[in-house]
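Issue 218. Parser rejects a valid record. Input:
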Amino acid sequence: MVPSRVDRWLLQKANKIVDPVGVSIELRSNALTTGTSDRPTIRLVNGQSLARVLLNPDLSFGDAYSQGGLEIEGDLVSVLDRLFECASRVRSGFQG
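Output the parser choked on:
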């Protein structure tokens, strides 16, 4: 399935957010990637999974992982540490 323009846009924005902590995000539906391959990678099954994780990462990330909606290429603990660091940066940026 070819990703929609919205899927491609979301993927680009998601990679821009996680790039500073050295993580890449891909869509598995057609191996669409905008990240760097030598980094730990989060691979989502489709654009709908990507949108869910971006809208509510605290709930949807774990749900998607446990249900097979996303895969981690690389060390899971390292990826989670990096994502928590990223979340801290994003949240502190919104606070002022």
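Fixed in the parser; the record now loads. The mean pLDDT is 86.
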